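User: I'm designing a mutation panel for Dienelactone hydrolase and want to avoid disrupting the core. Could you give me a predicted structure to guide residue selection? Please restate the sequence first so the numbering is unambiguous.

Assistant: Good idea. Sequence first, for numbering, then the predicted C-alpha cells:
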Amino acid sequence: MATVILFHSICGLRALERDAAARLRALGHDVITPDLYEGQVAGSMDDGFALKDEIGWRILCERAEVAVASQPASAVLGGFSFGAAIASHLWAKRPKTSGVLLLHSIVEIPDNARDGVPVQLHLADPDIYEPAEDVAAWRAVADRSPIALEAFTYPGVGHLYADASLPDYDDEAASLTWGRVERFLGGL
C-alpha cells in the first residue's frame, strides 16, 4: 500500500481532508494530512485566501517541508486545490515520489519530473479557478512532459465538488473521483 501525503484546501484542514484520509486508510494506505494553517480554518474561500496571504507562501512551503521530512521519498504527493500547489512545490524537491494526486487544481510540472511518474488530475469543467485556456495550455505542457497523466474532468460541477460541506458538492462526481483515486493508489 502507498504512503500518501494529502494537503488541505485554501480553507484549512477540515472534514474534507480528514474524511479522505480515513477513506484511504480504510483501504490500507498510510495517509498524513499536514495542517499548514496550524489549527486555523477559514469559513469561506475568500477567508482562506486571506489566511494564506497572512501566513505567506514561503512559510506554508516551509511548514510542508518539515511535515514531510520524515516520510519516504516515494510517498504520493496530493492535495485539494491550493493543497495541490503545495504538493507541486514538494514534487520538485522529491522527484522519487511514486505518484501525484491533483484534486481540483492544475499545477506546475517540475523540470525534474521522473519519466513515467503517475499523475492523476480531477478537475471541474469549467472551473472558476482554472480557466479553460489555462487548462488547455497545462495539458499541452503535460503531454510533452515525461509524466504519465490520467486526467478527469467533471462537467457542470463546482470547484470543490468533492467537499460535502460546500454548495459545490456533487455526490456523483465525488463518487467517481474517489473510485478513480482508489484505483490509482491501488496500482502504485
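For picking mutation sites, this is relevant: Residues 171-186 form the longest helix (16 residues). The mean pLDDT is 95.
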